[in-house]
Amino acid sequence: MSDTITLTIDGKEITAKRGQTILQAADAAGIYIPRLCAHDDLSAHGSCRVCTVMVNGRPQAACTQSVADGMIVENESDQIRNIRRNLIDMLFVEGNHFCMFCEKSGNCELQALAYRFGITAPKYPYLYPQRELDASHPDIFIDRNRCILCGRCVRASRDVDGKTVFEFVGRGAEKRVAVNAEATLRDTKIALTDKAVDVCPVGAIIIKRVGYKVPVGQRLYDHEPIGSNIEKGAKKG
Amino acid sequence: MSTNHKGAVRAICETYGNDRSRMMDIVRDVQAEFGCVDGEAMNAIASAVSGHRVEVESVVSFYSFLSNKPKGKVVIRLCDDIIDEMKGSGEVGDAFRKELGIDFGGTTPDGTISLEWTPCIGMCDQAPAALVNDTVVTDLTGDKARAMAKQLKADPNPAKLVKEFGDGNNAHDLVRAMVDNNIRQKGEVIFADMAPGSALEKALAMSPQEVIRDMKTSRLRGRGGAGFPTGLKWEFTRNAPGDKRYVLCNADEGEPGTFKDRVILTEKPELLIEGIAIAGYAIGSDTGIIYLRGEYAYLRPFLESKLSEMRDKKLLGKNILGKGFDFDIRIQMGAGAYVCGEETALISSLEGLRGDPKNRPPFPAQKGYMAQPTVVNNVETLCCVARILEKGPGWFANMGSKGSPGTKLLSISGDVRRPGVYEVPFGIGIKEMLKLCGAEDASAAQIGGASGTMVSPDGFGRTICYDDVATGGAVMVFGPQRDILDVATKFLDFFIEESCGYCTPCRVGNVLLKERMEKILAGKGEPSDLEYLRDLGETIKAASRCGLGQTSANPVLTTLANFRDAYTGRLKEAVDGKQPSFDIQAALSDSKTITGRASVHFTE
Question: What does A166-218 look like in DSSP terms, one character per residue?
């Protein structure tokens, strides 16, 4: 059995390695599939669902679904774009996001996705939840108002840092990220150098005193939309 | 926490071999002994099982019956599903409030009694019902509730609330429940008699492959709702590579309106146990686990005694019937989480984790419990298995309809004269079913519980089977006096409460659906809201990760399709270009209070 297989994404035939996820195969082929909870250095989570694609006519998360020979994937249809837009909208109204005041602005993947999808205002009503803020640690703070429950910090701390500083507690709309301590973040073993501190796609886990080192206007997504790096990969190849 | 307290927690962990995967048992026992699993207990458990405190907190915070704060010695959990509400749970709740002097969510000042709402406890045929610790009380009224509360204040022993026992094994010494079976119609598969051991004996005379072949020939499909072919599932599991294989019996029936597994567990436990053992033999497993929902804890001692009777009869344990087959079963209790009826969430829970569903693939047949090949079957399915072995696959395949062989247990409740459990042939017409249960004047039937299909009288000509209106067994009937939109909104409440919150569409989408339904119910809906509901509902359905989210929008989507008039009749056209839902006076009220003066905007 050959290790290389062929599938099509939006009608374009691409080759992939057996065992890759659709997301990995698409990245390698220079096709950007939007995602929030997925991260190259972490195990797949499949929770944000922004990477939903149609696989042989059925919706699947591209970050958890493996490729198969002859698979037909839709990534850019109106239906898929609509689903993704709705999901991004949901993440905005579920929390309390203040892009204009957030020091992550310009480096935030949620904000960047909203721009990429042309979202100027969510179509759903804001839910204005009461969320906790934890500024107890000398170097790191957590603002759960901006948390999108992607679980990157949970996986990074558990699998990469070997510390399990973060875990989800509660369920449903009450679900939130908790820390491994009776009280607050300062009572955990978290360190500035932890992967968990580094992977937050939004402004929920923030390193103190570095917020504006890179001025607004020179940030990651200020000039090119999120996903451009992946799409450029294709032109080169 | 005292040293004694810590020692007791450590002793509980020790009972389970300090095994992290037995977290559910550990936290349940701690909760039972101390009334909660507080921070100190979490620390003690984490250190005993070599885990992290936040992992324990994660589990405790997930399940409704567990708490990190002390609750009363007695917790009254009054069921608030739609059927209980229709039958008067509101009045019962008021009586409890008044008599106990506390509101829902509260505990009496002496710390004796707590009062809570709970979703469906599987007693819709005798609603309103409540759980008092593990004791079930049924057919409540305001007067009964007042008397109960008085009695509990004087003597906080829930067992003493049961003055009369229900029918059948509900009166058994190890059950002693006031629950009734209400079996209204017996069919040939589940409620017929079978000599214990006869099915297993036949199975062991065959090769495992032959047993699987018989399942395929019978065309048995899963009775839990999804309807996957049982033989195929077993074959996948048998053929998947692994060191060990498991049979999991899903006895976590939590779909609002379903209670048929409760009746099987009460009346046909031997049949079920035999079915589990046959499944074990077929897939090459020596371990079965019954995952029993926390609400049915009152059945546990009885089921344990049945397991031990089966062991005595050589139908379980080592060298079953002298044929060299080793197989045993243990019971795992749940702790109040509907989503654990989803097979991968059930596996998470069994592994001692929060009941989050898992990513698929891999499917449980490849990598299930403890990452080993695992079969998860519904209670009713496993009973069918035993009967198919006893009577032969042809006998089974000839019953029911073409694509859906066999019989189906329906639990019917709501506006019917004869609520209860009916064993009917698959393919029965909805009209005929409504006649059977005494609901000829029904104006709607929700087939398949809250996540099912709301059928209007136009659809009463349809049939109940996998190819038409599919169901796990729950049927709720609504008479002309009911507001269908209100019912659909109530179902959303349930899904919001029971969503695990893992994925965005289910966690957020259902809350948004409910917001818009409430807007329409309040008479502020606009025509565009219907398209909004449909688009949002379709997104939740398509993008959700597990069956809960993939079906949670069904009450809205199927009422939109089948009861359009109920929506359109309440909408207002926005004639002046303004949003009817926007109340400028209300929006400005806070600022008026703060500034201490009326705003100068226009008035009506």
Answer: EEEES-GGG-EEEESSSS-GGGS---TT-HHHH--SSSSEEETT-TTSSPTTS
Q: Best interface-test mutation with A: which of B508, B533, B590 has the largest number of A CBs within 10 A? A: B508
- Grouping H, G, I as helix, E, B as strand and the rest as coil, residue B474 is strand
> What does the block give as tokens for B317?
């344990």
Q: What is the DSSP letter of A58?
A: E
Q: Which residue type sits at B391?
A: K
Select from A196, A15, A201 the least CA-distant residue to A114: A201
* DSSP class per residue in B126-167: G-S-EEETTEEE-S--HHHHHHHHHHHHH---GGGG--S--S
Q: How far is B358 from chain A (nearest CA, A)?
A: 9
CA separation for the pair A106, A216 (Å, rounded)? 7
Cα(B480)–Cα(B430) distance, integer angstroms: 17
Examine residue B128 and say whether the peptide bond preceding it is cis (omega within 30 degrees of 0): yes
Closest among A153, A134, A143, A138 to A102, alpha carbons compared? A143
For B496-553, what is each residue's pLDDT tens digit?
999 999 999 999 999 999 999 999 999 999 999 999 999 999 999 999 999 999 999 9
CA atoms within 13 A on the CB side of A186: 7
Minimal-distance CA residue of chain A relative to B55: A167
What's the average pLDDT block by block, 10 residues per block, for chain A (237 residues)? 88 96 97 98 97 97 96 97 98 95 95 96 95 97 97 98 98 96 96 97 96 92 95 66
Dihedral (CA of A193, A197, A201, A202) sign: negative
Contacts of B416 (CB under 8 A, 6+ apart): B434, B437, B438, B439, B442, B477
Q: Is the Cβ pair A175, B507 closer than 8 Å? A: yes
Q: Of A110, A103, A101, whose CA–CA distance to A48 is shortest?
A: A110
DSSP 8-class letter at B121:
-
3-state SS, one letter per residue, for B413-463:
EECCCCCEEEEEECCEEHHHHHHHHCCCCCCEEEECHHHCEEECHHHCCCE
Give the residue from chain B lying closest to A149, CA to CA: B502
Sign of CA dihedral B250, B252, B254, B260: positive
Six-digit token string for B204? 């062991």
Distance CA B256, CA B122 (A): 7
Nearest residue to B542 (alpha-carbon basis) of B518, A67, A12, B534? B534
The runs of H, that is alpha helices, within B300-365 are: 300-312, 343-350
